[in-house]
Amino acid sequence: MLMNKNEFRKQQLAKLRGFSQSYQKLQEDQFLQEKLIATSDFKNSVSIGITISTMDEIDTKLIINTAWQFNKQVFIPRCLPGRRMEFTQITDYNRLTKNKFGILENWQSQSTINNEPDIIIVPGLAFKSDGYRLGFGGGYYDRFLAEHDLMSISMVGSLRLIEKSCWPINDYDIPVKKLITIE
């Protein structure tokens, strides 16, 4: 049965928040990050676009730290007017500012902007096996991916992979190109 996106989003967020402090989530996040780091997409990249994860997302710190260890450029999104975003380079976790959604952003005036990183790690609340995702409701990534044809990858934990269609897919929804799952 199809649910409206907002209804399914609320239901999924409640499920994920109940799971967020569990040992299983910690294990899954570690596994997914290690699996992504082992991909040729990551190994061959020079630059990555990635969020600094919040509690409701798959942890990203191992990926970011590994990228720095291998001298990769790390770019994080920052929200712009009109529900747009751009990616700015970070070299550490200092001088970041939380936006209205609680997401850390880089607003340093001398920041390098790169909206064409080699790979982009896309967060989401739920995913279908064909790459369609349900995000947090702002449409930022769909707009960004519609304008930038990038290697988009999402890490999908056990509660995020939805086998049957639970929400409608719209013309403006952009699927990610690769899913990293726990299987």
UniProtKB/TrEMBL annotation:
Q: Which reaction(s) does its UniProt entry say it catalyses?
A: (6S)-5-formyl-5,6,7,8-tetrahydrofolate + ATP = (6R)-5,10-methenyltetrahydrofolate + ADP + phosphate
Q: Which GO biological process categories is it annotated with?
A: folic acid-containing compound biosynthetic process; tetrahydrofolate interconversion
Superkingdom, taxonomy of origin: Bacteria
State the SUPFAM superfamilies in the record: NagB/RpiA/CoA transferase-like
Q: Which Gene3D superfamilies match?
A: NagB/RpiA/CoA transferase-like
Query: Which residues are ATP-binding?
Result: K5, N6, E7, F8, R9, R133, L134, G135, F136, G137, G138, G139, Y140, Y141
Q: Which cofactor does it need?
A: Mg(2+)
| A GO molecular-function annotation | metal ion binding
- Note whether Lyase occurs among the keywords: no
What's the Enzyme Commission number for this chain? 6.3.3.2
Q: Which UniProt keywords apply?
A: ATP-binding, Ligase, Magnesium, Metal-binding, Nucleotide-binding
Can you tell me which residues bind substrate? I52, E57
What is a single Pfam family found in this protein's UniProt entry? 5-FTHF_cyc-lig
Does the keyword section mention Metal-binding? yes
* Stated family: Belongs to the 5-formyltetrahydrofolate cyclo-ligase family.
What is the designated name of this protein?
5-formyltetrahydrofolate cyclo-ligase
